[in-house]
Inverse folding.
């Protein structure tokens, strides 16, 4: 969870700094990571500690 | 005096509403010790991503891709909130946290996400906002909103570190790490 929040924070900071494309990529990575974590929580199949 | 177009004002209004909701959740966590579960934290992340879409509208001008970010973030939040509602919907399974105005936070999260999706879809359809310059003249307002979100996320990072460390967050979180009794060795 900590890494996901750090990802999100870095995307926000990139957008603030003016890096639109990099912020959007960070956003997508954070969203994909969130979906993985949600799937892990719902099924307990992904034994990853994010 | 900052002159805003109606679409910009509505973007700011939605963003401010999300920031108020997130700040309330953080305050409840710190002052009422309402510790967030993993699903609660995922809902917060969804709202952060939603807020980022609005902020990018203010920072880089209004674009359809930014609205797509908002809608995706809100959809994710609604999905996670729905899962949590489903976990507690059967009578006798209890609930998580204290209710506000009769509804629990995850129910509010679901309602807010649906409102954001509906409102953003309507806003998304206004064609004239994509023509001409849609950047806000005042950078101060944009910077204040960015700073508010960065502060909220930073506080959340600290609280998550205190609560979970680098590991997965527990399903039923107990008192924060700094309030736990030290382990005694025999």
């Amino acid at each position: 969870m900590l890494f996901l929040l750090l990802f999100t924070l870095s995307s926000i900071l990139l957008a603030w700094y003016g890096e639109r494309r990099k912020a959007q990529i960070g956003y997508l990575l954070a969203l994909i990571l969130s979906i993985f974590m949600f799937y892990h929580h719902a099924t307990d199949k992904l034994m990853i500690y994010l | 005096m900052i002159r805003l177009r109606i679409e910009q004002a509505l973007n700011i209004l939605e963003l401010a509403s999300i920031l108020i909701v997130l700040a309330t959740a953080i305050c409840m966590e710190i002052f009422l010790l309402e510790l967030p579960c993993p699903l609660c934290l995922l809902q917060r992340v969804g709202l952060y991503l939603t807020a980022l879409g609005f902020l990018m509208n203010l920072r880089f001008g209004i674009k359809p891709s930014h609205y797509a970010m908002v809608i995706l973030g809100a959809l994710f939040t609604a999905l996670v909130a729905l899962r949590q509602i489903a976990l507690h919907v059967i009578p006798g399974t209890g609930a998580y946290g204290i209710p506000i105005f009769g509804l629990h936070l995850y129910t509010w999260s679901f309602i807010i996400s649906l409102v954001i999706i509906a409102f953003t879809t309507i806003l998304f359809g206004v064609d004239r906002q994509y023509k001409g310059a849609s950047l806000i003249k005042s950078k101060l307002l944009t910077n204040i909103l960015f700073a508010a979100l960065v502060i909220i996320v930073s506080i959340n990072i600290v609280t998550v570190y205190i609560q979970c460390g680098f590991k997965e967050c527990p399903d039923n979180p107990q008192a924060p790490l700094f309030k736990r009794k030290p382990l005694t060795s025999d």
